[in-house]
Amino acid sequence: MKPARTPRAERSSGRLLLLDVAGGTVEDRRPAELPELLQAGDLLVVNDAATLPASLRGSAGASDEAIELRLLGREPDGSWRAVAFGAGDWTTPTERRPAPPLLRAGARLRLGALSGQIEEVLELSPRLWRVRFDAQGAAFWSALYRSGRPVQYSYLARPLELWDVQTAYAARPWAVEAPSAGHPLAAALLLALRQRGVQLASITHAAGLSATGDAVLDAALPLDERSFVPEQTVAAIARARAAGRRVLAVGTSVVRALEGRALAGGGELRPGEATTSLLLGPGYRRQIVDGLLTGMHDPSESHYALLQAFAPRALLDRAHAQAAAWGYLGHEFGDACLILAPGVAAGGSER
After folding, report:
1. Contact 179, 332 (CB under 8 A)
2. Where do the DSSP E strands lie in the chain?
3. pTM for the model
């Protein structure tokens, strides 16, 4: 499937693949049709994480070797996990990027208005570092937004601006790559959904990197990610399930946040902040989410395994082949897919 090479001028103007798991059907629709495809009382849960300018270029070590540092996630102690690349930028395919210099803990980093040091080279990969920046608080955030750029990949036609990667409802700056499943949900479409009677709720999930160029590290993605589930969202989900209404996630990050929290709570969804390492896949018994609005994922991507918690592989493969034949576009600015799976009843059994 070809990638979309630029953001859409009209965010809801793409295509929508409707996958009805119970009926085994695949339809070619449009995002603007979502209000008629959903039902009054359905609960749509979005990830309101704003996307950080998480790509930082500069130099490292005593010899000032060129690097690019891509932030991966903030740690509770204020340090950051990050993936390092050698010289170059997004115009080179990730898998062809050179590795960074082999550095040890204590090596200094100079990244535009930011400076810091490597506190730890993590065991999973010599490219995976835990970094502490010298600036903290407001000074750090100001320097990050002056120095960073959005993470992007070589299939794109132009450098991205920060506003290209934000959703219409972006709030707290937690994501290092865009929670892009929500891109088609422009303000006018959200209003139409509300007028239809579809309920909206949000969580905040720190969506991580989708590729690093390191085969071992890529195989481990997604790594642990933090999320915050508000009390009002827990209450909205409880009301929807009590009324027999569907809970639909906008993006795989929402699925991971909600299902990870429910699994940790023994089936009970509790509010608050937590970190999840949950990897959903074939045979996973969903406890919260009945359906998923997502992008077009390639079978080689880690997200494709998560989709198999909603639909069998054979049906997903048939849908993917049909979408490719219809000319659907992939990746973060591509077309969308709505998967409606058999629902989840109280206690985690399917209804």
Report:
1. no
2. 16-20, 25-29, 43-47, 50-51, 55-60, 65-74, 80-85, 108-111, 114-121, 128-133, 173-175, 199-205, 225-229, 247-250, 272-276, 291-295, 336-340
3. 0.93
pLDDT tens string for the chain (351 positions)? 999 999 999 999 999 999 999 999 999 999 999 999 999 999 999 999 999 999 999 999 999 999 999 999 999 999 999 999 999 999 999 999 999 999 999 999 999 999 999 999 999 999 999 999 999 999 999 999 999 999 999 999 999 999 999 999 999 999 999 999 999 999 999 999 999 999 999 999 999 999 998 999 998 888 899 999 999 999 999 999 999 999 999 999 999 999 999 999 999 999 999 999 888 889 899 999 999 999 998 887 777 889 999 999 999 999 999 999 999 999 999 999 999 987 654 334 454
* Residue 299 identity (one-letter amino acid): P
Would you state the structure tokens that stand for residue 178, as one six-digit string? 């865009």
Inter-CA distances, 202 with 180, 226, 253, Å: 15, 15, 12
Q: How many CB atoms lie within 10 A of CB 165?
A: 25
Provide the phi-psi class of 309: left if phi over 0, else alpha when psi is between -120 and 50, else beta.
alpha
**Cβ(206)–Cβ(227) below 8 Å:** yes
Is 240 in a helix, a strand, or coil?
helix
CA-to-CA separations, 260 to 50, 204, 280, 307, 332, in angstroms, rounded? 21, 13, 9, 15, 23
Do 317 and 282 meet the contact criterion of CB atoms below 8 Å apart? no
- Residue 83 structure tokens: 């993936």
Cβ-proximal residues to 202 (8 Å cutoff; 6+ apart), any chain: 45, 46, 47, 48, 169, 171, 230, 233
Q: How far is Cα 332 from Cα 179, in angstroms, rounded to an integer?
A: 8
3-state secondary structure of 11: coil
Q: Which residues contact 200 (CB under 8 A, 6 or more apart)?
A: 43, 44, 45, 46, 190, 193, 194
- Binning the chain into helix, strand and coil, the percentages to the nearest 5 are 25, 25, 50
Measure the N-to-C terminal CA separation of the chain; round to a whole number of Å. Answer: 34
CA atoms within 13 A on the CB side of 211: 15
